[in-house]
Amino acid sequence: MGTDDGVTARFEAERARLLAVAYRMLGSAAEAEDAVQEAWLRLDRADVSDVRNLPGWLTTVLSRICLDLLRARVSRREDLGAEPADAVSPVADPETEAVRADEVGRALLVVLDRLGPAERVAFVLHDMFAVPFDDIAYVVDRSPVAAKKLASRARTRVRGTPVVSPPDLARHRRVVEAFLAAARSGDLTAILAVLDPDAVRRGDRLAVPADRPVEVRGARAVAGEIAVFGRNARFAEPALVDGAVGVVVAPRGRLRLVLLVSVAGERVAGYELVADPDRLRRLDLAVLD
After folding, report:
1. Are 191 and 219 a contacting pair, CB within 8 Å?
2. What is the bridge-based pairing of β-strands 195-203 and 257-264?
């Protein structure tokens, strides 16, 4: 049945929230828009005259749509092998994608993309939007207890396990953030200030242009090489990489590059650029609080 003006207005009032839910589940602005539009079509066909909680009804419908899309995405990966990141989802307006990725956090989007479909849905709904587990259970077709376990497993993976003490983790993060700020600025003096005099830059052949060496030694030489990474610095964000502070580079929230960073005192002793897909898949990535 067709929706009346009152229901349409109530849907439009929920649109921004629904887009936020869908984007965190799907990591793609284009797919989020499509999922919300599909939720609208289902609302338009449904009799919701007895629905007391329309926002909750819409969240449930949208979440099931997103879950189906995530499962289909996994099936494509299994059928075709690991897809290039660009093939995972359609690309919306680049500016919209950039804004959404900045709002959510590129590291979080990368980590969420490594969760199973049901884990991702349960985590997003509960930890980000405070949806009760009874409602999540209906979405993922599990018991409330099982839904709670899904969210707990996802939360553990999102947070990760640091391999250094909290004070060292905080210090390493400060150093890495200063390194990123200097790389974004392109200021050679600022870059040299955050590098150890004996700093080393390494990289696999997919991360380093063919005309550049895979290893460079010495702060001044490394500072010059940072220009190679600097083009991607605006897409970079600190993250927990194998339990230590590193950097993920993720345009539109899609992982392209990881920096394994070594810290000595208050400076960067070296970093390695990793772009090889097999190596990227083996890295344990998590979000820094």
Report:
1. no
2. unpaired
The string of pLDDT tens digits covering residues 137-160 is: 999 999 999 999 999 999 999 999
Q: What is the pTM of this model?
A: 0.87
**Spans of all domains in the chain:** 5-159, 166-286
CATH class of 5-159: mainly alpha
Element (H, E) at 268: strand 267-274
Angstrom distance (rounded) from CA 102 to CA 123: 20
pLDDT at 6: 82
Q: Residue 89: left (phi > 0), alpha (psi -120 to 50), or beta?
A: beta
Closest CA to 96 of 275, 243, 252, 270: 252
Tell me, which fold does domain 166-286 have in CATH? Nuclear Transport Factor 2; Chain: A, (3.10.450)
Predicted pLDDT of residue 90: 56
Strands 244-249 and 257-264: antiparallel
Asked if residue 258 lies in contact with residue 283, where contact means CB atoms within 8 angstroms, the answer is yes
- Cα(254)–Cα(86) distance, rounded to whole angstroms? 8
Instruction: Give the model confidence (pLDDT) of 159-170 as tens digits.
Output: 999 999 999 999
Say how far apart CA 229 and CA 35 lie, in whole Å: 35
The tokens for 196 are 């150890």
CA distances from 60 to 112, 155, 230, 270 (A): 20, 21, 42, 47
